[in-house]
Amino acid sequence: MTANNDKTLLIVLPYGIGWKSIINEKNLEILTNSGLKIILLCEPNMINSTNPDVVIKTLKKIPRTKSEIAIGLLRNYVFADTSKPHSETLEIKISELDNSHPILSLIRKSIGKLFAKSTIVKNILAQFDSALFNNSEYDELFADYNPDFIFVTYPFSFYTYPILRHARKSQIPILGYVPSWDNLTSKWEVPVKLNKLLVWNNIMKEEAINFLDYSDECVSITGVPQFDIHSNDSLIVDRKKFIKDLHGDENKKILLYATGTAQLSDSEPFIVKMIYDMIRNNKFDHPCQLLLRVHPRRSLSDFKDLFDKPDVIIQTPGKESKEFKDSGYVWKSDFTDYSTLSNTLYHADVMINVASTITIESCLFDTPVVNIGFDADLDLDFNRSVKRHFQYSHYLDIVESNGVKIANSEQELGEFINRYLNDPALESAGRNLIVDNQCSFRDGKSSERLLRYIIDFTKEYSV
């Protein structure tokens, strides 16, 4: 391998708010100490750096053209191959598109299925993509800094496409990190194939190989860098102090409800009110209080009916901010907020959510989890129902682990919560299996592994 002294790495960070645990001043210093010069392309105010070898530039959030959307629909819908492994999510999304695009649906069913496995069709679509979309918006940046490598933290973002296309045209090696367990099966296939991918676990590696046609040697497992903080036992405070800081009641059990985005479920405000009513009506064997933790992309106004109610604690993931509103974020988090999350998951007696990543985080602390598998009293189509989430490819491992309980009715919700309040050790083996399958490592060093893979990539592709 060649040393990478005086080589330039372009880091593309389309959504920066949740990345301070990985792309921060300390880790940038590790990269520059390896001999790299860093160009960080990100949202304004995402990070400040005094490192002389780091240049921060603003990412341009360029909307896709109608032609790009059309090519994307052809690639990911009309000619989608649903026979591949891990395609359960794809089949659900195709069903949604069938309903909303009847003409394209007819083309897909009559022609698309016949050529879904055709490499010729894939190559033609790739050539169309190269010919039609030059994406000159970053010509000046590439001319000024001449990056030798590109590391993209979320390659499935449409905002990264212009950079990826420019890299392909200039033959610049690209390393991508897949930041969430659902990305490989739920997002549109990126128009540019990356040289290498970094993923959380072996499940995601198999998805990249079987679903996106990457080779085994091109996919490496880092663990989950975002979860490293949960391995820091020194951040955990005693329960009495934690509850006191929340202005809660130390004599009551904590029922933690972690909301998703508004798009995740239409019924969450009704479910949360349902749990609150159970508490107030003494439906549980132990006195309880509701700790409502709001998603970073969720407004508190959706739950205004619970403001100032007894036995309700509302927790926001940071301070309200408009800095990242273009990315949909309502709240801006810092290290203290991440530490608060660790303590919240550790001290919660039962954690309740629909079907989100926080399920895995709760399992790291062996905290019992109840998933919401019904829509309260709403009559929703499957494409809007929470039931769809439990058929998505990425969540099937959770369902099959026997580590969580999925409540399919109000009665089951109350029963499962009460069951865990009385015996929190139930399903502990399943929760442990979820952590093994999804996190790969529990050593708190996934961020270090990611940095090492980045540095190794730059050495491997140095010329």
Summary tags:
Rossmann fold, alpha/beta, 17 helices, TagF_C, CDP-glycerol glycerophosphotransferase activity, 463 residues, six-stranded parallel sheet, Glycerophosphate_synth, seven-stranded parallel sheet
Give an account of the 3D structure.
- This protein has three domains: 7-62 and 135-224 and 445-460, Rossmann fold, CATH 3.40.50; 66-129, no CATH class; 229-439, Rossmann fold (3-Layer(aba) Sandwich).
- Helix 2 runs antiparallel to helix 5, helix 3 (88-100) packs across helix 4 (102-110) and helix 13 packs across helix 16.
- With 463 residues, it is α/β, with parallel strands linked by helices.
- Helix content is 39%, strand content 14%.
- Strand 4, helix 7 (161-170) and strand 5 form a beta-alpha-beta unit.
- One of its GO terms (molecular function) is CDP-glycerol glycerophosphotransferase activity.
- Pfam families: Glyphos_transf.
- InterPro entries: Glycerophosphate_synth, TagF_C.
Helices and strands, with pairings:
Elements lengths: L6 E7 L11 H9 L2 E7 L11 E5 L7 H13 L9 H13 L1 H9 L8 H14 L6 H7 L3 E4 L8 H10 L3 E4 L5 H4 L9 E4 L2 H11 L6 E3 L17 H7 L7 E6 L9 H13 L7 E6 L18 E4 L3 E2 L10 E2 L2 H13 L2 E4 L4 H7 L4 E4 L20 H9 L3 E3 L2 H13 L5 H12 L6 H15 L3
Parallel strand pairs: 1-2, 1-4, 2-3, 4-5, 5-6, 6-7, 8-9, 8-13, 9-10, 13-14, 14-15
Antiparallel strand pairs: 11-12
Helix pairs in contact: 2-5, 3-4, 13-16
